[in-house]
């Protein structure tokens, strides 16, 4: 039992996550059954709501954008052997960075302001992850606990700033004034309309392309650069990394900052792209679902895109489903995410062990 | 005199606010002392709060509610235990999953059952825990300073508040004075040694995780049956995480846990009291700063700048028997 389970790579990367997702859906179906609805009918409604119309697809991709950012953030930290639960807090600070840039540099033209806003988001996210990264690397403080605490600190900080400092003058709402029009991130329907293609109005915006670019960037970083090699070595075997002369604490801090920057970019989609102002709780739990995305995607960008699309479908379809079936609220999505994290992350041995035995038996029979 | 009664009111509400923290903190203490990291305290509190409110609503009895809360919390504790002990899965991942599952399920089922946006109907009468007056509280009120302290801060709470103190006493005594407690501590520091002595590591860890489940059940039931009159979605509002902070603050010991939880509860009470109050010299008091203080203090403590918090050595590590 203590020997590592050996199986083909495709089984490890595709079959195990697929079985975990299937198990999550079976249990979720039982929950739907228990509250007196038909799971098959609910699934059909969900799929139709997410993929049946152009509008649905646009919303699905818009939600997927958020999950790609937070999923990549968790994945980069995973590669370095770190568990970054702080995506929520880093994304919150990302929103602050984006808002500061958009509000204070609003004299700049759009082609300069939007990238600067994104840079602000990434920078603030990275800095919020720097402190836990530093404390883990140099002081040995457990990163899970410090990032949880930093989530709480970030939300308290945002409330304070929006209520007391950055709030719109004369408004009781804890939110900043609307950003200048130069900070507008182009919507997909706007860009496509200029090209002569008419698509329904959805919140899908250019951040989706940024998310895909980040996927490519993360792949390049992790598997094609010296730093990526160092990150993977530190994650796989810190003792070997130390022996090879890799500066472990520096790699830990840098990996956390990259992770925080990716989480911070969530704000480009949510704050700059859709809300066009900074408001409370715009992170909406995406940071936590990023953990599910990274686990299901096996920390690989391709897997993360697929898992993000799945969660995008769940989010959009779930919203539509809640209209048709008021008993199945959007809390169903949180439930399914929890189940996915459980089966793909903590109980993957349930699928891994039998699969390993199956492949071992086949090898023996074949050879 | 007015300052004194204001201070007593704040202390009184500090006691109330620290009780769910204390139950969750002791739960975390048992679990982590046995080597199982539990960041799912929040989820277990929430599940227990919901089950307790639902059962109390159905039966009209707070005690049945408490039982249901404990059972719900135990269910989640078993899931965590199975993942962490039997499957040797990642304990952090499992804890995150428990939190999300509880958050989703309680709101979903609550909405499906009662159709009030996830809330349970308001509870009243015997469906809630009523405050009890300690003997002599009214008579003692006349004594200056100490009298009101006894009558208002120590007396006049629900039975669960005194149960929390009792749980602290039992936790401290069991871990320190009994064979079982010694083994729990040993299995959190060096499970191989316990295994060599012929004692089952999984059995001890399951026992600790289940005790944690019972304690979170009490904490959750307190939230919905004593502090509030029913369940609200996300009503734990991060209490499980503050409890985690208190656990680190207390360096995984029972009596200091009581102190840390009371301190954090008091901070919460102060921040509620100072909401919108203008102080000379400071202006409007930034209550968020007071609310954030437990988290900030914990980070400073973890960083080892003042004192050092060292967790049980084997906590978070699955135990593999044969090597």
From TrEMBL, chain A:
What kind of membrane protein is this, topologically?
Answer: Multi-pass membrane protein
**Tree of life domain:** Bacteria
Cell division among keywords? no
Protein source organism: Alsobacter soli
Upper taxonomic lineage: Bacteria, Pseudomonadati, Pseudomonadota, Alphaproteobacteria, Hyphomicrobiales
Q: Where does the protein end up?
A: Cell membrane
Give yes or no: UniProt keyword Membrane: yes
Q: What is this protein called?
A: Sugar ABC transporter permease
Return the Pfam families for the record.
BPD_transp_2
One cellular component term (GO) for this entry is: plasma membrane
Question: Which GO MF terms does the UniProt record name?
Answer: transmembrane transporter activity
UniProtKB/TrEMBL annotation, chain B:
Q: Which Gene Ontology cellular component terms are annotated?
A: plasma membrane
A Pfam family found in this protein is: BPD_transp_2
Alphabetical list of InterPro entries matching this protein: ABC_transp_permease
What sections of the protein cross the membrane?
A: 6-29, 66-85, 92-114, 154-175, 206-225, 231-250, 257-276, 288-307
Q: How does it sit in the membrane?
A: Multi-pass membrane protein
State the UniProt keywords alphabetically.
Cell membrane, Membrane, Transmembrane, Transmembrane helix
Q: Per its UniProt record, what CDD domains does this chain match? A: TM_PBP1_transp_TpRbsC_like
Q: Which domain of life is it from?
A: Bacteria
Q: Does the keyword Membrane apply?
A: yes
Give the molecular function GO annotations.
Answer: transmembrane transporter activity
State the compartments where it is located.
Cell membrane
Q: Does the keyword Membrane apply?
A: yes
Q: What is this protein called?
A: Sugar ABC transporter permease
The scientific name of the source species is Alsobacter soli
Please name the taxonomic classification of the source. Answer: Bacteria, Pseudomonadati, Pseudomonadota, Alphaproteobacteria, Hyphomicrobiales
């Amino acid at each position: 039992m203590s020997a590592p389970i050996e199986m083909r790579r495709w089984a490890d990367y595709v079959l195990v996550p697929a079985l975990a997702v299937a198990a999550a859906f079976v249990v979720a179906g039982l929950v739907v059954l228990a509250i007196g609805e038909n799971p098959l009918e609910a699934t059909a409604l969900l799929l139709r709501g997410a993929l049946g119309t152009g509008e649905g697809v646009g919303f699905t991709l818009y939600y997927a954008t958020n999950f790609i950012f937070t999923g990549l953030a968790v994945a980069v930290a995973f590669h370095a052997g770190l568990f970054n639960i702080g995506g929520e807090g880093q994304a919150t600070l990302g929103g602050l960075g984006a808002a500061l840039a958009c509000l204070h540099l609003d004299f700049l033209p759009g082609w300069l302001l939007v990238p600067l806003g994104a840079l602000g988001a990434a920078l603030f996210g990275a800095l919020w992850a720097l402190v836990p990264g530093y404390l883990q690397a140099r002081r040995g403080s457990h990163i899970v606990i410090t990032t949880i605490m930093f989530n709480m600190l970030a939300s308290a900080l945002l409330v304070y700033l929006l209520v007391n400092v950055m709030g719109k003058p004369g408004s009781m709402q804890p939110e900043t004034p609307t950003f200048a029009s130069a900070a507008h991130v182009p919507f997909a329907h706007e860009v496509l309309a200029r090209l002569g293609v008419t698509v329904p109005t959805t919140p899908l915006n250019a951040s989706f392309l940024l998310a895909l670019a980040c996927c490519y960037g993360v792949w390049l970083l992790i598997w094609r650069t010296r730093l990526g090699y160092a990150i993977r070595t530190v994650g796989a075997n810190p003792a070997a990394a130390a022996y090879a002369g890799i500066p472990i604490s520096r790699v830990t801090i840098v990996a956390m900052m990259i992770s925080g920057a990716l989480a911070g970019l969530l704000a480009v989609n949510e704050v700059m792209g859709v809300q066009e102002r900074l408001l409370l709780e715009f992170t909406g739990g995406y940071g936590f679902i990023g953990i599910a995305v990274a686990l299901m995607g096996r920390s690989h960008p391709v897997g993360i895109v697929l898992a993000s699309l799945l969660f995008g479908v769940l989010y959009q379809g779930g919203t539509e489903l809640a209209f048709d079936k008021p008993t199945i609220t959007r809390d169903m999505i949180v439930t399914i995410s929890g189940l996915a994290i459980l089966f793909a992350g903590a109980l993957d041995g349930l699928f891994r062990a039998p699969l390993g035995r199956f492949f071992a038996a086949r090898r023996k029979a074949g050879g | 005199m007015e300052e004194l009664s204001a201070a007593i009111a704040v202390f009184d509400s500090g006691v109330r606010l620290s009780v769910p923290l204390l139950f969750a903190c002791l739960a975390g203490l048992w679990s982590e002392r046995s080597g199982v990291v539990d960041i799912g305290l929040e989820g277990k509190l929430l599940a227990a709060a919901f089950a307790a409110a639902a059962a109390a609503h159905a039966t009209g009895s707070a005690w049945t509610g408490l039982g249901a809360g404990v059972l719900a919390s135990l269910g989640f504790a078993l899931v965590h235990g199975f993942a962490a002990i039997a499957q040797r899965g990642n304990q952090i991942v499992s804890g995150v999953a428990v939190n999300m599952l509880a958050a989703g399920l309680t709101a979903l089922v609550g909405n499906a059952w009662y159709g009030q946006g996830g809330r349970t109907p308001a509870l009243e009468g015997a469906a809630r825990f009523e405050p009890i007056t300690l003997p002599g509280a009214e008579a003692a009120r006349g004594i200056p300073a100490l009298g009101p302290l006894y009558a208002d801060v120590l007396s006049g709470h629900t039975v669960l508040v005194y149960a929390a103190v009792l749980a602290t006493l039992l936790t401290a005594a069991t871990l320190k004075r009994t064979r079982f407690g010694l083994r729990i501590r040993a299995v959190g520091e060096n499970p191989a040694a316990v295994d060599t002595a012929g004692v089952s590591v999984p059995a001890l860890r399951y026992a600790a995780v289940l005790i944690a489940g019972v304690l979170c059940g009490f904490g959750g039931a307190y939230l919905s049956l004593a502090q509030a009159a029913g369940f609200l979605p996300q009503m734990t509002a991060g209490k499980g995480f503050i409890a985690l902070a208190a656990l680190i603050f207390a360096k995984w010991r029972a009596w200091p846990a009581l102190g840390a939880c009371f301190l954090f509860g008091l901070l919460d009470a102060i921040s509620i009291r100072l909401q919108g109050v203008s102080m000379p010299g400071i202006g409007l008091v930034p209550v968020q700063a007071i609310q954030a203080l437990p988290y900030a203090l914990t980070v400073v403590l973890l960083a080892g700048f003042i004192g050092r918090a060292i967790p049980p050595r084997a906590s978070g590590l699955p135990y593999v028997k044969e090597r």
